[in-house]
Specification:
This protein has 165 residues and is mainly beta. The chain contains no helices and 9 strands. It is 0% helix and 36% strand.
């Protein structure tokens, strides 16, 4: 068995997990499987915040004793005028019922960060020593009045991590 990483999204007042999502869909509703065209972000507004965890499985089978130095960033895709994705993964981030109110987070890096920016095991410098999940990565897509109406571009986010055999 190889190391497997799944992306899990959490929604609602009860912190409901949807494991193994294929894409983070930003929009005007708090649901993991929304259709952006049916849940548009109005220019000048924000998407509902998203709470994401990366789940790691198969560490022992892969001969790993540790996963550390997790970094996430936007690696592909163009923003439209006045648009950004903000996020936070350190602190660690506590879950809160998602809303469209600005999270106040900084823009997600558009290049590989120099330091860990996603907490593990409840610590900014934490490590996983067994199968488990990252802490929350909170994301939100934000627009300005200058953002053109219509569909926003697809974006790709990349997770990078170090392993210890």
């Amino acid at each position: 068995m190889a190391l497997t990483i799944t992306v899990d999204e959490y929604n609602g007042a009860g912190e409901v997990e949807t494991a193994g999502i294929s894409a983070v869909a930003f929009g005007s509703a708090d649901t993991p499987d929304l259709t952006p065209i049916d849940n548009k972000i109005i220019a000048g507004g924000n998407s509902f915040s998203k709470y994401i965890k990366f789940a790691f499985a198969g560490m022992v089978a892969e001969g790993l004793t540790e996963i550390n130095t997790t970094k996430v960033y936007k690696s592909l895709g163009e923003y439209k005028t006045g648009e950004s994705v903000v996020g936070e993964g350190l602190g660690p981030v506590a879950y809160a019922t998602p809303t469209a109110t600005s999270t106040g987070d900084d823009a997600v890096s558009t290049s590989l960060p120099g330091a860990q920016n996603l907490a593990l095991a409840g610590s900014d410098s934490g490590v996983l020593v067994a199968d488990g999940s990252s802490d929350y990565w909170r994301l939100q897509r934000q627009t300005s009045a200058a953002t053109p109406n219509g569909a926003l571009n697809d974006l790709t986010f990349t997770l990078v991590y170090d392993t210890v055999p």
